[in-house]
Design a protein that fits this description.
Strand order of the largest sheet: 1-3-2
Order of helices and strands: HEHHEEHEEEE
Number of strands: 7
Helix content: 25-40%
Largest sheet: 3 strands, antiparallel
Number of helices: 4
Radius of gyration: 14 Å
Amino acid sequence: LRHLQDLPGTRDGLSLTERLTLGLLAEESQTIGGLFGRLTQEREPLPWLGDVMYLAVVEAMGRAREPAFVVAPDTARAAWPQRRLVITEAGRAVLAGEVDWLSLDPPERWVGGVRIVPGRPGWRWDEAAGRPVPG
């Protein structure tokens, strides 16, 4: 069930991991290391990501055509756990369900054997129904 929740959501196009990350950033700017700690200790219903796997998720989110957050310039050269992220207006719009995350062209990714390609129909997670649905 938790793995399926990392399919793009029907409401916003975000995986649960991405949604929880943006929710934390909407509260306050934080370092990647701080986000990882808060995610796993406070928000994640079933912690399963290691820190390097989480870094891959965060870095991919930062490579969208319109990123959901930016690295604060004063921490850009810091080691990755100390890089501070700041949510963007695009990130707030996605989190509010006003913009679909996949419309902002994040990098292609895989959830198990499911290829997630922005701009193409694909499987989504329907939270209300509690199941994946074709998109």
